[in-house]
Structures are given as structure tokens and as C-alpha cells.
Amino acid sequence: MIFNRILVIKLKHIGDVLLTTPVFTALKEAWPRSRVSAVVRQGTEAMLTDNPSIDELLIVNSKSRHWREPLRFARGLRQRRFDLVLELSGGNRGAIYTWLSGAERRVGFDHPRRSWWQRRYAFNLLLPRPPVRWHTVEQHLAAVQALGWQPGDTGLKFYWNGAIEYRVRELLEKHHLEDRGFALVHPGARWLFKSWTASGYAAVIEVLERDYQLPVVLTAAPEDRELDLVADIVRQASVPIINLAGRLSLKELGALIAQARLFLGVDSAPMHLAAAVGTPTVALFGPSGDFNWRPWGEGHVVIKKGWDCQPCGQDGCQGTKISRCLTELTPAEVLGGVAQILGP
Predict the structure, then answer these.
(1) Domains defined along the chain, listed by start
(2) Of 90, 119, 174, 190, which sees the most CB atoms within 10 A?
(3) What does the DSSP assignment read for 74-115?
(4) Where are the alpha helices (DSSP H) in the chain?
(5) What is the model's pTM?
(6) pLDDT tens across 99-156, in order?
């Protein structure tokens, strides 16, 4: 079957959107002359801009409370006359957009929480729920495989333009950093219960600087909790740190990670960025499942306690917002992961 106008819907967070990029590569492999569009939430579009496999990027303002805006958006989808829609979000809004698109082939995944109207109306190719322990990338690609195409290149893709490259080069020169000559540490995440301790990071950073002679760059989102964590790390560390927390766009962050020798962080969007740009990653996992969310690709190391209660998927132990499986990781355990990449 030939598809000329294809739409992929992913109304999730930044890292989730980045994990869909192998789908776009696969679609262009299968139907190279097709026009491929993507629907994402406002604030996540940087994960897909500049991607040569995407011809059009449509952005949803999910915070709008006026009924006319989503109606206008849905009307625009229908006017584009898509003949294939892949809905990879799993929520009601994505299902509604799929149904209203009027596409001849509408693909989605079954789920126990899907309502009857989604099963009956939104999708005419409702795929069985992928195995729980599949990586999210594998789950996404199952939609393409169901259409008869076996993807070749399954790597994550992240692109930036010349202006971003110039800005990052300026940063490297300003701080006297060489390509692959520094470590980038991104300690925070959107949710506090995914975070490790400031003292642990400080101890590991001291070893990176002293024993591996790697200057350390600290980054963070411009959110108070992440900035506070970074400030605490800087206070506790006894070595100089280049603090770029809250100062980089997502494009700049990805381009800077691409020049690092090592990335260290928790389960987060920047961790997926590191995997996308091919930087060896040490990823700390607690309540989330590394089988779903580990850094995609080869050359990365996952550090976790491996307790029977992992992954619990909870927001901290007993709702405390603090995950003991993370906070009780020791610097020695994390440095063991670092040694797997950098050597003893």
C-alpha cells in the first residue's frame, strides 16, 4: 500500500517526542515520496525541528481553554487529507484528532484504559498493546512494522542549525573546553522523585576532575528546583565547575552534549538527547523502568539498585517525593559506571 500524506501524533513530554524520531526515519524509508507531518505539544517541538524526515510540524497549544482553538486545529488536519495517521500518545485528544482527520488508515494501540469509542471509531487498525518490557522506541516502531515495513535505521535523531553550532562553539572557546574533553552532568529532572543527591554528584564530579582530568559542565532546566539542586552541588564540590544551568535552549543543550566525552544524569529528556547525539551516558534509574526508558543504543551504562520493588512507578517511597532506590545509590556505584566508559 502506498501512503502519500502521513501524520504522526505524539502529545507527550520532551523526551517522549524525541523517542518517536526513529518512526519518522522508518516512514521515509518505506515511503520516500510521502509528505510526513507531526503533531506535538507546544514546548516539545525542538525535538523535531530541522529533522529532514519531517516535512511539516503542527503544534498544539494544550493549555488553551477556548473550545474554538482545538476545533480549528482539527479542521486543519482534515483539510490536509492524510491517508495514514499513527497515534502514539495513547490519550483522548490524540484519538480525537485521529478520528477527525478522516484518514483512510488510522493506527493506534489498544490499552485497558482505552474507552469503547476509541476502539470503535478512532482507529481502524487497533494494534495489540506491545509487551510491557519493550523499550519505548520498540513500541513506537511496532506501528510501522504493522504496516508491513521492517525499519532499518532505528537510531534517535536530533538536529540543530548553524546558528546553534556557532553558539556552542563560542561556549566551548569561552570556557576553554575541547571536543570530547569534558563531562556534562545534568542532575535534575522534571520530577523531584527521579533525582539523586547533591552530595553524591559533588563526590563524582571531584573524581572526574581529579582522576580523569575532565572539566565538568553542569546544566539544568530553568526551573527553581533544578537550579537549587545545581547550586547545592556547586557549594559541596571542592573543584571548579562550569555552571550553565538554566542558560541553554534545548537545541544548545543537545549540541553541547554532542561535544562531551561523557554524560551523567537521571532518567530525563537530556539523557535521551545524549543517546540521540551519540555521547556515552551513565544513567541513574530509580522508580522508572530502565527496560522502557534506558538510553537507546549502544555504549551506555544504567546504574540502579536492582531492588525487588523497582520499578514501582511511584512518586517517591510512600508518596514522599523521595526515592530511596536513588538517594541510597553511592558515589562508588556511580563511579563504577563511569569506569565502564572512561576506564579505571
Answers:
(1) 5-145 (3.40.50.2000), 163-342 (3.40.50.2000)
(2) 90
(3) HHHHHHTT-SEEEE-S-SHHHHHHHHHHT-SEEEEE--TT--
(4) 14-18, 21-30, 68-79, 92-101, 116-117, 136-145, 162-174, 198-210, 224-236, 250-257, 269-276, 290-293, 324-327, 331-342
(5) 0.95
(6) 999 999 999 999 877 777 777 789 999 999 999 999 999 999 999 999 999 999 999 9
